[in-house]
Amino acid sequence: MSVADLPPDPARRRALAALAGTAATLALPRRSAAATGGAIHTRPIPSTGERVPVIGLGTWITFDVGDSVASRAELLSVLRDFLAAGGRVVDSSPMYGSAEAVIGELAGELRRPPMFSATKIWTFGRWAGERQVERSRSLWGLERLDLVQVHNLLDWRTHLPTLAAMKREGRIRYLGITTSHGRRHDELERAMREVAFDFVQFTYSVADRDAEPRLLPLARDRGAAVIANRPFDGGALFDRVRGRALPAWAAEIDCANWAQVFLKFIVSHPAVTCAIPATSQAAHLRENVGALTGRLPDGALRQRIVRELG
Ligand SMILES: NC(=O)c1ccc[n+]([C@@H]2O[C@H](COP(=O)([O-])OP(=O)(O)OC[C@H]3O[C@@H](n4cnc5c(N)ncnc54)[C@H](OP(=O)(O)O)[C@@H]3O)[C@@H](O)[C@H]2O)c1
Asked: Residue 62's domain spans which residues?
């Protein structure tokens, strides 16, 4: 597939992003909470300039709860509180068992509030890919999915023309590609150089900074929005700080807990569009969405976070 099939081109994307006010430097200003007026942090999607909140919601394992009444009741609070706090991006996949069905049903119970639906293709072959997107659309209960990503680059050359056609026809709004755990970065880099993806998704956290030297700068160059997965290293980051008091500098970036420190580290990188922490607990969700507001670390504090926690 040629880049020309997937307009607008990277130069135009950069211009759109600039117009939309993309933060241009790594050293983002530490504005006080009062100065931000409690407004939530958003970032533009470079290909259109549409803004999305910097904290999204992952659903791997956490939303794969089938018919469990107790789990669904808790997840209803998770989803409701996420959206009430201003969150929008919900990330899922056909690989996540019942997660897409659970999202769709809970969204129905909440009377379909505004949400940015991000799911994936995770299969081989064109026909199977088309069927899978159609099934996802139906499970989410939506006429149109916002973003469909090729999961773990699986058969991505086959799925790209399908997704490009769906985008042209208005059946999806954006297309993307994902990986995680630092896997297949070379192949992802090649794909990003070849194709103008709207979104790329890979792992980025203070525990896993493999994407820093190449993928994050390349995403900026190519005008691709970045979704950072595994922001808590799958939860392991909390083990790293267990029993450790929050440092004094956390107050300088309006963090009341470690979750907010981990998330603000990620979303203060200028190439990152949003991070997608997953949780099964409403109390944890409320901690996580706290990172939507308040000051963000500047370059010096980001380095300190790496020194102390990386
Ligand atoms: N290749 C891909 O496309 C790919 C690969 C990996 C992940 N992803 C996406 O990225 C999302 C996030 O990654 P992930 O789910 O692997 O890991 P993660 O978000 O880094 O960590 C999730 C873990 O953190 C815990 N947690 C969440 N908030 C917490 C808080 N405030 N305090 C303490 N613990 C907290 C959760 O436990 P509780 O439930 O107890 O809160 C859960 O065990 C996935 O759900 C998925 O949507 C995509």
From this structure: 50-309
